[in-house]
Amino acid sequence: MADRPRDIDTGDDIGVGPDAGSPPRMPRWVKVAAIIVGVLVVVFVVLQLFGVGGEHGPGRHLSGGGTPPATVMQEHPPPADDQG
Amino acid sequence: MTLPSRLRTAVLTAHVTTSVGWLGAVVAYLALDVAAVTSRDVQLVRAAYLAMELTVSHVILPLALASVLIGVVNALVTPWGLFRHYWVLVKLLLTLVATTVLVLETHTISYLAQVAGSGADPRELPGSLGHSIGGLVVLLITAILSVYKPRGMTRYGWRKQQRQRRKPPAALVP
Question: Could you give the CA distance from residue A33 to residue A28 in angstroms, rounded to a whole number?
Fold first, then answer.
C-alpha cells in the first residue's frame, strides 16, 4: 500500500484524497464525534425543556437533592448569576 | 511563528504539567465529591465540602486557566498551529467548554461549602458528581487526543500548507 501524504513539519497524515489539488475531507472520527456531541446537546435541551432533569444550577441541587433549612436559605441565598 | 526548539520544549513541558495537574486535581476532587454525597458522617461531609471549595478555587481553576493559556501559546509556536489540525481544534473546543462550565460551577461549589459550614446538615446537600464525572471524561478525551493525535487537516491548515509550499525558500530570493 502506498504511503499517504504527510505534513512536512508534523508528520501528520494530511488526509488528501486522490486529487492532491483539492482540500482534504473531514476525517470520519470528527464526523462521529460531531454527531455524538449533537445528540447529547439535543438530549440535554429536550430534558431541560420538559423539565425531566429539573432546574440546572444550584437551584436544582437545593430542590432536587434536598433543601437546607429555611433559616440557612434566608441567610445564604444561592448566587443569582449561576442559575443557568 | 515558531520558537527555537529549547523554548518550545519548555512551553510544552508547562502545558503537559498544568494539563496533567488539572486532571489529577479533578480526580482528587471526585473523591471528595463521592465522600460528600455518600457518607452519613456529618463532620466528614462538612469537611469534604470545604475541601472541595478550596480544591476548586485554589487548585483546579488556576490549573485550568493556565492549561488553556499555555496550550494556546504552545499550539501557536509549533508547526501544529491552533486551527490547522482537527485534533488540536477539538481539544481547544473541549477545553474551553470545560473551563467555562468550571468557572460557573465554582460559584455553586462555593455556595454549597458556605451552606455546609453554616451549621446546617450538610448531608442534605447533593454534591456535584455530574459535573465532576463529566469534567473528568472531557479531560481524559483531551489527554487521549494529545497522545494519539488522530489524523486530519482542516481546510485552513491545508490552504496554509499550500501557500508555504508555493513560497520560494528564503535563500533563493534575490
Answer: 9
Contacts of B96 in chain A (CB under 8 A): none
Q: Which of B45, B78, B86 to mutate to test the interface with A (most CBs of A within 10 A)?
A: B86
Q: Beta partners for A6?
A: A13
Structural domain includes residue A80: no
Does A7 fall in a domain?
no
* Contact between B55 and B25 (Cβ < 8 Å): yes
- State whether residue A53 sits within 8 Å of chain B by CB: no
- Whether residue A44 lies inside any domain: the answer is yes
User: How many domains does the structure of chain A reveal?
Assistant: 1
Q: Which residues of B lie closer than 8 Å to A, measured between beta carbons?
A: 79-80, 85-86, 90, 104, 107-108, 110-112, 114-115, 118-121, 124-128, 149-153, 155, 157-159, 161
Q: Which residue has the higher pLDDT, A53 or B150?
A: B150
Per-residue model confidence as pLDDT tens digits over A46-80: 988 887 766 665 555 554 444 454 444 455 555 55
ipTM of the complex: 0.77
Structural domain range at position A37: 30-75
Assigned C-alpha cell, B68:
488553556
